[in-house]
Design goal:
Blueprint: H1 6-18, E1 21-26, H2 28-31, H3 51-54, H4 57-62, H5 64-78, H6 85-96, E2 99-104, H7 110-113, E3 119-121, E4 124-131, E5 137-139, E6 158-162, H8 171-183, E7 186-190, H9 202-208, E8 212-216, E9 229-231, H10 235-254
Parallel strand pairs: 1-2, 1-7, 2-3, 7-8, 8-9
Antiparallel strand pairs: 4-5, 4-6
Helix pairs in contact: 1-10, 6-10, 8-9
Bound molecules: 2'-O-acetyl adenosine-5-diphosphoribose (OAD).
2'-O-acetyl adenosine-5-diphosphoribose binds near residues 28, 32 and 105.
Amino acid sequence: MPSPDQSLLGQAAEVFSAADAVTVLTGAGVSAASGVPTFRGTGGLWEGHRPEQLATPEAFAADPLTVWRFYNWRRGLLGKCVPNPAHTALSELEARCRNFTLITQNVDGLHHQAGSKKVIEIHGNIWTVRCTACSREFDTTGQALDDDPHCSSCGGRLRPGVVWFGESLPDHAMTAAYEAVTRCDVMLVSGTSALVQPAASFGAWAKQNEATLIEVNLEATPLTELADISLLDSASEVLPAIVKEMTRRKEQAGT
Ligand code: OAD
């Protein structure tokens, strides 16, 4: 693979270094190098499946066992995954920024594992489960669950703590995400096809508020035309390279 465009890398490093408030939106592509399948495209989770058969409240109401088997299969897969250099670079970027918020559509928890602190998981977290009767939430990180798990508190049926198609995002997550997107002066969008709302609009909202928009994605998306800097390459290569370039520039300025 040819190395990322050095001039664009330098521009991105400069923009991040000068930023007051950085907001990042990530999607499945950021976890791809950890072995987590993306959703769309060849080998994607939705290839050969209709999301509405597995990831909607209607699918769960009709056939909770099949839905739970799908989520338990994903949990088994994710349990073996560890953060990759893209996750690490984002936690390093957070440490260098005055104001930083990471919004993720990923439910794998890998940003937390990599040390990111201010993370908004707008689609929930696959390791959280919620009772459909009493709404109690349980952290089941790393645990294997039954195919039809029930609440230890009230006996109600548990469901995965993720947002399904047709459901609204949790109010607190949406409010915090909206605030971070409209307040930032630099927005980075990485590893997302930018097709699923409302996250697909975050880049455009940031631009409307005059933020500089940087995209790091393997292939062009509906956001590419809007982006001020677009690096069409792997996040696990480009994001560490940007942070490295920020360090180099800082050291150079200090000498
Ligand atoms: P998608 O699978 O739609 O898109 C992943 C994007 O990442 C694509 O544009 C790829 O080109 C890009 N990509 C793949 N590997 C990459 C890499 N190594 N570096 C950089 N980019 C890479 O995933 P999302 O946009 O995250 O929602 O999907 C959004 C939502 O749709 C998900 O959260 C999920 C899904 O259905 C729900 O389940 C509610």
